């Protein structure tokens, strides 16, 4: 009999410890889930939002994200924000790294910007940049 009571006490002690940790585990899971939703890591974005990085897809993405609601592109759209007509020719870097960084995280480049972070994947950024290059080439001709 004494042996059973020792086993029962140790089991109860383990259960108490487990019950004490459950809220912390639940909170940790909620925080991690919120992190993936609010500020998803690049690898997650690239897995879930992969597109064909073509100029045509870039044009669709510009329409889908409503870029022309604030920006003028190829002579069309509003001028609430930077006029993007000719932007790829104004950027000194041929790889368009400044634009790429801006599209990845606008507030990381300029903290007080009004532009929201659309959490674009790398392939979406490539497609939008391909469209901007094509639009700038067409405007130059």
What does this structure look like?
- The protein has helices at 2-38, 42-48, 55-64, 87-90, 97-104, 106-109, 122-140; strands at 72-73, 76-77.
- Helix content is 63%, strand content 3%.
- Helix 3 packs across helix 7.
- The protein folds into two domains: 1-38; 42-140, Cytochrome c-like domain (Cytochrome Bc1 Complex, Chain D, domain 2, Orthogonal Bundle).
- It is an all-alpha fold and 141 residues long.
- The radius of gyration is 25 Å and the shape is elongated.
- 15% of the residues are buried.
- Strands 1-2 form a two-stranded antiparallel sheet.
Topology, pairings included?
Layout: H1 2-38, H2 42-48, H3 55-64, E1 72-73, E2 76-77, H4 87-90, H5 97-104, H6 106-109, H7 122-140
Antiparallel strand pairs: 1-2
Helix pairs in contact: 3-7, 5-7
The residue fraction in helices comes out at 55-70%
Q: Which fold name is given in CATH as the topology of the largest domain? A: Cytochrome Bc1 Complex, Chain D, domain 2
**The CATH superfamily title of the largest domain:** Cytochrome c-like domain
Number of H- or I-type helical stretches = 7
Estimated structural class: mainly alpha
